[in-house]
Amino acid sequence: MANIEQDLIKRAAKELVNSSYAIALTGAGISTESGIPDFRGPDGIWTKNPQAERESYEAYDELLRDPKAHWERVLTPGSFFGLLDGIVKALPNPGHRALADLENMGIIKLVITQNVDGLHRKAGSQNVIEYHGGLLRLRCISCGTRFERDESYLEKLKRENQLPPRCKNCNGVLKTDGVYFREPIPKDVYDQSLEAAWKCDLMLICGTSAVVYPFAELPRVAKDHKMERERKSQAGLHSVGKTQAVTIIEVNTEPTPLTHGEISDYLIQGKTGDVLPRIVDEVKQLKKR
Length: 289
Description:
Helices cover about 45% and strands about 20% of the residues. By secondary structure, it is an alpha/beta fold. The strands form 3 sheets. The chain has a 6-stranded parallel β-sheet with strand order 3-2-1-7-10-11, sandwiched between helices. The protein has a 3-stranded antiparallel β-sheet with strand order 5-4-6, with no helix packed on it. The protein has a two-stranded antiparallel sheet with strand order 8-9. α8 links the parallel β2 and β3. The longest helix has 17 residues.
């Protein structure tokens, strides 16, 4: 099994080096290795605190109905939103740093992550789309402008009874940038992610169970995509040729619906913090040759 795994790591490295537009998709599995718990696992946030799950399902409706009450709940110690404290203290792990290394080498062009922890940026990745937003930022529900989260400013608004925070551009209500249940994915994020899935010729999927939609649709979009190319016929007309255009590689501890549905080309089974640095090492060896 060890030899098979090493062969797949070498294959992944070679395909990454030969790619022209590689992107990475990441999920909770890459951040649990930094000590950030998932939601539904044995030690998950909701498993241990069902009240937190109920709060999370109610958050978007409450925000729209009574933004002041919502923000008072957000800033109440012990609420579901107290998760922010742990995220602020979390540090990137070798998996995050490996993806940043691949970007620095010009191989990974973009990371699209489900995670709201900001660890890819902390690790040094520059081109990151936070598909479900980021808890370290705020977003206007009217114009979509994003702002860095200033905890002292929010506490000041609470003390002075001036909640909710307001957008500096349009005076709309601000919310945590993290996407709530029943809240649409922001249009800019949705469009940019879809464009990247259509454009990529390699997709590296890291630490996601691939069951949360619409994020889980991105590998399927990439798999179904056919590159269109125009070529002149001898008669001077244009025709469209279609060719399969993407390689999809999974790095996960367990098989996923992408594995079983043959969406991914192959699975490298293991922790992202173990596998991704080994892929980087192989890439470095290939680039030396």
